[in-house]
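Record now logged for everyone:
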Amino acid sequence: MRIVIIGTGYVGLVSGACLADFGHHVTCVDKDTTKIETLQQGEIPIYEPGLQDLVRSNVKQGRLTFTGDLGGTVAAAEAIFIAVGTPSRRGDGHADLSYVYEAAREVAAALAGFTVVIVKSTVPVGTGDEVERILKETAPSKKAAVVSNPEFLREGAAVHDFKHPDRIVVGADDDRAREVVAEIYRPLSLNRAPILYTSRRNAELIKYAANAFLATKITFINEIADLCEKVGGDVQEIARGIGLDNRIGGKFLHAGPGFGGSCFPKDIRALIKTAQDHDVQLRILEAVTAINDNRKRAMARKVAAMFTDGLRGKTIAVLGLSFKPNTDDMREAPSIPLITALQDMGAQVRVFDPAGMEQAKAVLENVTYAASAYACAEGADALVIATEWEQFRALDLKQLQKTLKRPIIVDLRNIYPFDEISRAGFDYACVGRPPGPRARAGVDRRRK
C-alpha cells in the first residue's frame, strides 16, 4: 500500500519505518526542512534502539522516503496517518490540537480519490469528529474516512512494540476504512496481534485511559514506598507480592522518583481538562498529578538527609538524566526538578547520561557534564542514580569508593542490593526499602 505519514517525530518516524519494513511504500512528511535533510542522509533526530538501522535499510530499498511536500504525496496515497505533536497548551493544560487541525486542512486540499485519514496522534475524545468536519468543509466533493488508531509505543522499545503489539485499536465507523486499516496491519497476523475494532470516540478514550491507569500504578507504589520507609517494609517485596496477582500484574510497580516523559504528564492533564469541560471531576487523576509533581523535587531531600551539615558547598554527581533508559527524551524527566532542588540547597551538580546530555542542555543550567559515570563521580560528595540505564547497574563499586570524596550513594531506582553495597562500604539510601547496616540517614563519613 501507499502510505503517507505526516510528522517525523517519535511516533511518525517509528511508525513509518516499521510500516515500510512490512513492505508498504511509505512517505514521511515534515515541514522542518533540516530534519528532512537529515533523514534523507540516513540520520535520525532521536535516540531509539534499532530505529536508525531500520530507517537506513528501508530507504536503501526504496520503500521509505522523506519530503517536505505534502501536496505532492497525498493524491497517490491510500492511507494518510496524522502523527504530529499534541503538547500541553500553554496556560491551561489542554492538548494543543493546532498541528492536527492544520494537517487535516492541508490533507483536505490535496485529496483525490477515496482516502483513509488515520489519526495516530494522542488526541482528546471528539477530535476525530472535528477532523472529519474539517475535511468535509474544506473539500466537500472529496471522499475520505477518518479513523482513530492510537499508538502504544514505549520509548526505548518502540520498534519491538510496533512489530509485536499487545493490541491494535482501530476506531472506525466506515467499513471501507476498516478494510484499509486491516490491510495495513495484515503483516502482523502471523503474530496474532489482537485488533480491537470500536468507535472512534472509544479509541480516543482508550489511549488516554491506558496512560492514566499506568501512571496511577506508578504513583500508588510510590506512596506505598513512602509508607515502607516509615514502618520497615520493603517495597520491592510488596510489589512482587501484589504483582503476582493476575488481576494486578507486576508491570509499572517499580518505586522511584516519579514518572515523566512525553506522554503520561501531558495526557493526564489533557484528560482532566476534558473531564472538566464535561462537568466530570477525575479526583484520582488530579491526586496522581499533584503527588507526582511533588515527589520529583522531594527526592532532593533524600540526598540532603545523608549529610548532617546540609548540601551547601557539596558536589553531587547525578547519573541519568533522561526520563527512562534507552531514550534521550528529557520531557518532564524527574532529573530536572531533582537537580534544580539540589542547586537550590546549595549543591554543585555534575551529571552524566549515555544519551540525554545534549537534550538536557536546553532545560538544565549551571551543571557540569561529565564524559563517563566515573568522571561524574570524581571527587563528588555523593552519587545519585536517577535513571536506571543498564550501564549503571554494574558499576565497579571499588573504583567508586576510590573516586568519590565520600562513600555515599543515593539510589532512586533501587538497582543495587543492600549486601553488595554494604560489603563495598557505602552509606546508602534508596526508595521504599529498609536501611541496611550502613545505609543510615544522616550519616556523614568524611574520608580522612
The chain has three domains: 2-198, 208-293, 295-429. Residues 437-448 have pLDDT under 50 and may be disordered.
